[in-house]
Amino acid sequence: MRFVLEPEQQDMADTLRSVFATADVPDVARAWAGGDAEGWRKLWQSLGDLGVTGVTLPEERGGLGLGPVELTVCLQECGYAGLPGPLIESLALLPALVPDLTADTAVRTAVVAPHLPCALDADLADEVYACDPGSTRLLTGISLRRRESFDPARRLFEVDATGGRDVPGADFERAFDLAVLGCAAYLLGLGHRMLDLATEHVKQRQQFGRPVGEFQAVKHHLANALLKLEFARPLIRGAALSAGGPHGGRDASAAKLAAADAAHLTARAALQVHGAIGYTAEHDLHRYLTKTTALRQSWGTPTWHHRRVAKSLATDPKTPIGTT
Q1: Whole-structure pTM over 0.90, yes or no?
Q2: How far apart are CA 232 and CA 296, in angstroms?
Q3: What tens digit of pLDDT does each residue of 133-148 get?
Q4: CA dist list (Å): 67 to 72, 73, 189
Q5: Shortest CA distance to 14 belongs to which of 91, 74, 88, 87?
Q6: DSSP summary character for residue 105
């Protein structure tokens, strides 16, 4: 198994990073948190022009016809940029769930029972779905009630999920596993961005006449964070390669657990080296900290994923995690 990106995949990652750097995502995120979607939709249109909004859709439906590996590349870069919005829903879950979906720049979100009781950014979305293992429905004429989130840019809404139009042929299990994998990739991107912010900060911050990054204890904290992130990367790649297979769900859960733990450890290390400034909403680190905390519990809690992995290993202990 190759754990490095192919040249085309690396080009995709580099292009997305350049697009996000040009777009001033921090300003876009602050506006989005306040309900102003203009800047975000312009950026979403740019992603649509690149084909990202249809990355996994087949070419006959206007997509790029790429696979889960490319999906994780896109969502990792979204995580590195801290881009808000229903990205996992729009890029991972619903393209795999709704059979007649075509590549466009519509914004889609969903309630996913029992893991996502609230729809992310439902007031700004073009379509809202209600999904569970037994049915998928496109909701119409829904009422919304805002719920508070630890991350101000994760705008959660309770929706009336009793009506709507049934979507036949939906494959919930496969779509949910891709969403879990997408969440893992997003968390990996968050972790690497927090590590980069922390590394840059310790190079500049002075103590006792030296950059604090020269102190061995600081180096150890950041090295441990990097180690955790790099151990999560092959699990995500392995889960992408095994997606849709008999152990795709187990591998996605293992990837989510590893990425969430790595991002959480990195968040703690980054906050520690930044000190009090890292708590302030004005500092970029704050956006990544809050997203990491929120996503660690989203798309299945750590307890749920631990049980899923344990149950799979108990049933088939001879198949290693990440085996295609």
Answers
A1: yes
A2: 14
A3: 999 999 987 888 999 8
A4: 9, 10, 19
A5: 74
A6: -
